[in-house]
Amino acid sequence: MKIFMHSLIVCLLLVSSASGKEPARQMIDALGRVVDVPEKVERVICSGSGCLRLLTYLQAQSMAVAVDDIESRDRNFEARPYALANPQFKTMPIFGGFRGHDNPELILALEPQPQVIFKTYASSMGFPPDDLQNKTGIPVITLDYGNLGEKRAQLYQSLRVMADVLGKQERAGKVIAFMEGQIAELKKRTANIPEKDRPTVFICGVAFKGPHGYQSTEPAYPPFTFVNANNLAGSMGGTGRDLQHSTISKEKILEWDPQILFLDLSTLQMGDNASGLYELRNDPAYRNLTAVKNGHVYGLLPYNWYTKNYGSILANAYYAGKLLYPERFADVQPEEKADEIYRFLVGKDVFTKMDTIFHQLAYKPVPVK
Fold first, then answer.
1. Sheet of 44-47, strand order
2. 208-250 pLDDT, tens digit each
3. CA-to-CA distance for 125 and 131, rounded, in angstroms?
């Protein structure tokens, strides 16, 4: 039987080496590497986009002995709920650069030393995991960050693998059940809506490895998928990365003329004279869009910020559902729902803080005239 290569745990038996080393467990990580990890792990570092987020979801952030350099940066905009909920990350020791660009010398100088290094996106960016393990002598467990779409199983398996290393299995089960429950609830509320009652929508300014302008979108935008929205960009087809990020021509957007526009507020990072909001306000062609003329432009929290913020995906879906089908979300207050989600995943209410950072444009009409 072929081994499922995405983070499958193949053995949790304790084995003691003849040399007297600490007992270890053998595990298989997301790249199919067999890795020995200590029986009891209390100190770790998280390398790569989103890795520290997963640790926070498991309520294990206190086990981190250092962080990558993105955590220490001062910036005008911040949309990572896990970081806002854990300001201590800003002053912790640094072990390397962001996106997995680790520094073995800095890692070896840490006191105390991590017992395990978790690493996301290990096959596509940053310091190779085998090299890192050989240079530091510290076991490296790679994780598939996954998504809430076609790679949801990989996300859940990574949570389970991390939890097995840390002894957080019960919490991992709760996180997975929470995500599944929210998605099921969203789909249940929006099931069987006739095509004629589904307004056409388009989201602009979606971030992808940094901020983008108005034409940046996501054909498989998860919040729209969860509430069965009529996402015009979804008609473009494509596979893989094309579904995660696309740049749509101005001509096509004008041809579509969506009834409702959503603005990913990450675009505000581009500045007052370059953002997607600036384009909406100043481009004569966009100003003729039906949604702009009718004042149907609404702000959504950024979610693709140091990869996917799963809490913001779920929160945005509830707001989109409430806006598109108000009768089916009559009992939902989107701001309160967002904080319910953040409180469960990262331990604190952070919606108001993020809304303030993004000029109080989240979950409300965006002035474009």
1. 44-47, 116-120, 140-143
2. 776 788 888 888 899 999 999 999 988 665 444 445 677 888 8
3. 13
Whole-number Å distance between alpha carbons of 83 and 86: 5
Domain 194-357 listed as CATH 3.40.50.1980: yes
- Asked if residue 150 lies in contact with residue 6, where contact means CB atoms within 8 angstroms, the answer is no
Name the token pair of 308: 């996917």
Residue with tokens 């319910």: 340
Q: In 3D, which of 205, 269, 209, 274 has the Cα closest to residue 233?
A: 205
Domain boundaries, the chain: 14-180, 194-357
Give the tens place of pLDDT for each residue, 107-128.
999 999 999 999 999 988 889 9
Tally Cβ neighbours within 10 Å of residue 75.
Answer: 8
Question: What Å distances lie between residue 270 and 12, 182, 199, 279, 364, CA to CA?
Answer: 48, 32, 29, 11, 21
Specify the DSSP class assigned to residue 192.
T
Q: Are 172 and 59 in contact (CB under 8 A)?
A: no
pTM for this one?
0.90
For 58, list phi and psi in degrees, rounded to 5: -85, 5
Second-level CATH architecture of 14-180: 3-Layer(aba) Sandwich (3.40)
Secondary structure element (H or E) that encloses residue 216, with its range: strand 216-217
Query: In the 8-state DSSP scheme, what is residue 330?
Result: T
Rounded to whole angstroms, what are the CA distances from 91 to 66, 72, 82, 88, 165? 9, 7, 15, 6, 26
